Amino acid sequence: MPDIRLGSPQGKWVLFTTILGSSMALLDSTVVNVALPRMGEDLDADLAALQWTVNAYMLTLAGLILLGGALGDRFGRRKVFVIGVVWFAAASLLCGLAPNVGVLIAARALQGVGGALLTPGSLAIIQASFHPDDRARAVGLWSGFGGIGAAVGPFLGGYLVDGPGWRWVFLLNVPLALLCVPVATRHVPESGDGRTHEGRFDVLGAFLGASSLALVTYALIEAAEGSVVVTVSAVAGVAAGVAFVYVERARPDPMMPPEIFASRQFTTVNLVTLCVYAAFGGFFFLAALQLQVVSGYSALGAGTALLPITVLMLLLSSRAGALGERIGPRIPLTVGPLLCAAGMLLALRVGPDASYVRDVLPALLVLGLGMVTLVAPLTATVLASVDTEHAGLASGINNAAARAAGLVAVAALPLIAGMGPEAYRSASQFDEAFGTAMIVCAATLVVGAVLSYTTIRRPEPDCRHPECRTHCGVVSPPLEAGEVGAAGRVTGDPGAGDPEAGGLEGGREK
Asked: Which residue windows are transmembrane per the record (predicted)?
């Protein structure tokens, strides 16, 4: 049984290491959007290249995050976490030194691989290291400090872009890794699960899933060309998706076992997740561009302007989760998307020479309140919709679904809104397309609200509850504890995640 106490020197070092490592990936998901216009100018990149700069990272992260957790269980969580940090830092260095946009996109894809190794490992290390009496508090501190890091991200990104330059958005990860790795090696105990040394990894499933996303994303981004290559990519992407489903059904140890979707509520809540996180992914990609290209904000101004959303989530997400437990998930998962839709419609006021107080802030406040209302109940409903032993897997699938939804939205929204390759260089063209995109995002959120209202039901009273009460990530719901098997499958113990039941005994993040 792990016996590190939170108040001990080693406990503080373990917590510091996991917060620092996870913050690298969390910051990267929020600061890059702010830097996109300057990257485009310096590298002479068109809009499609900027889309790939965002999507290359999300593609490999979404496709490999379940597999990354399984690798940690089999080969050692500290070892895989450290490899992930080093990999992420090396890819970040390559991003910062990229001589052209092609190298930058390739390096971003490599960054996502590193993120898939270190992101599951941070919470897994906490759960495998701390004494059960301290584990819930450690998770709370990890979650809270991570939220503070997310809040600082856009501001820090804007400061770096306007100051030393956009390359420092990536280069900053190198000194963070140089601090994180020796601390992890010295103070974090190694942990693993002997039961994961049997069976095989579902590498084929991970490859097919990631290939399907990559091919469909390419087809959407390049669809305006209407070439044979685009058509072939679209068909191949669909075929890879079908093959992924077939392989997962046929394998004895699949990464994403189809039987978990036998729960109607689990299936429905993932459809809701696809709707809301597609809208969020599209909004945060386009909003940073809108503020700079159309409204004339600096990168620092655009990053600071978006802070209210993260601050609201930092301050209110735990209270929203408690409210959802009292009244059930149906109302929050209906009202939350509707509030977000209203916020995106208010964003139509953000145009040339927009006043922050009159035009920008109201949209962000309403959107932030909507996100606060829905994110915690969404996670709780995912965990409650399956058996306790599958709660960790359910959370991992939901997290990957959200990232995939954002990936597709960043690829599809510019196409739907009629943005040409040089749209971000013209304020008038981009402003018109942004308005269309916000209407599409709002409509997608309304669909999510209707799904929630008509299908979501109150879970059983003894269901699994989320352990990460504070969450500020805007690209995906939080990962929750579970025990990852050798193929990336997750099981868990009854009562895991419940402080009153002994607190996360044996639980690990996917």
From this structure: 12-36, 48-68, 80-99, 105-126, 138-160, 166-189, 201-221, 227-247, 268-291, 297-316, 328-348, 360-383, 404-421, 433-456
